[in-house]
Amino acid sequence: MFEDLLIRLGEALNRRGFPYMIIGGQAVLLYGEPRLTRDIDITLGADTDRFDDLASLSQEIGLTLLPQDPLKFVNETMVLPSLEQSTGIRVDFIFSFSPYEYQAIQRARKILFGAQSVQFAAPEDVIIHKIIAGRPRDLEDVRIILLKNPRVDTGYIRKWLKEFSSVSEEADFSETFSKLQGSLPYKETN
């Protein structure tokens, strides 16, 4: 079910030249452990000026756009939510063109599903996204990813978390990461 949709998404995004990476629960499944997720989150390295191309791509692979006025919704939120009606799988396309997201997309890993490659965020970038989201489930995802991937590039993670912390009035993401790392039964290797 998810694999078929990921294959179709990867093929269509690659064919149309969209820079992208799969983030969220699907990436956690790749680097962490199985858990219930009913959606696919995709960060696009594109501005909203590619809305028409994305709307056409969505229709081509059988997705229904959820907002009544999709373009207005995208311009307000930078997100295009859609649904594959037959499976009930929600697909959220997230427009982004920040320096961090650009670099994260460049670092994305190509994962083969049959003959089709699909780009997933690297584990370090999944960790960064999850730390910033900060919900208990997200922090547990980070803990599991760290346990299963002890050789992640913590220098890269710390660099970006420090940068995000410097512009956040609410959280010290670096401290959150350090606490999570300190709670693990192994020592940092890099």
Overview of this protein structure:
With 190 residues, the protein is α+β, with helices and mostly antiparallel strands. The protein has two domains: 2-121, 2-Layer Sandwich (Beta Polymerase, domain 2), CATH 3.30.460.40; 127-182, no CATH class. It has nine helices and seven strands, in the order αβαβαβαββαββαααα. It has helices at residues 2-15, 24-31, 51-60, 70-77, 99-107, 123-133, 136-148, 154-166, 173-182, and strands spanning 20-23, 39-44, 64-65, 79-84, 89-95, 109-113, 116-120. The strands form two sheets. It has a five-stranded mixed sheet, with helices on both faces. It has a two-stranded antiparallel ribbon with strand order 6-7. Strand 4 and strand 5 form a beta hairpin. The longest helix has 14 residues, at 2-15. The N and C termini lie far apart (38 Å).
